[in-house]
């Protein structure tokens, strides 16, 4: 059996669906961030798969590297925000944090 573009797209759709489910249903901010990371990884798989099977040479890999850099920056900034929210409200439950004025 040979791995084709369809296999990569199915894997990417499953990862994207799991990430979207995690973002929509979770109340913990850390788990929401993990869902966003799954969505970004699904996009990376798509970039690499279309680069491999679409004849884009190294364009897909270059875009995937930029997405990985973006995900690392997002994780660092989001973690700092979550730590500040926990310090102020003593919870990371996104439903309980309804006013961020102060």
Textual characterization of the structure:
With 102 residues, the chain is mostly helical. It has a single domain, classed as Helix Hairpins (Orthogonal Bundle). 75% of the residues lie in helices and 0% in strands. The mean pLDDT is 87.
* CATH topology term: Helix Hairpins
Unreliable sequence segments: none
Fraction of residues in helices?
Answer: over 70%
Largest sheet: none
Order of helices and strands: HHH
The averaged pLDDT comes out at 87
Calculate the terminal CA-CA distance, rounded to whole Å: 59 Å
State the CATH class: Mainly Alpha
- Tell me the number of structural domains: 1
Compute the number of strand runs. 0
Q: Would you spell out the secondary-structure blueprint of this structure?
A:
Blueprint: H1 5-25, H2 29-53, H3 59-89
Helix pairs in contact: 1-2, 2-3
Question: What are its keywords?
Answer:
mainly alpha, 3 helices, elongated, Helix Hairpins, 102 residues
Describe this structure in a few short sentences.
The protein is an all-alpha fold. The protein has a single domain (5-89), classed as Helix Hairpins (Orthogonal Bundle). It contains 3 helices and no strands.
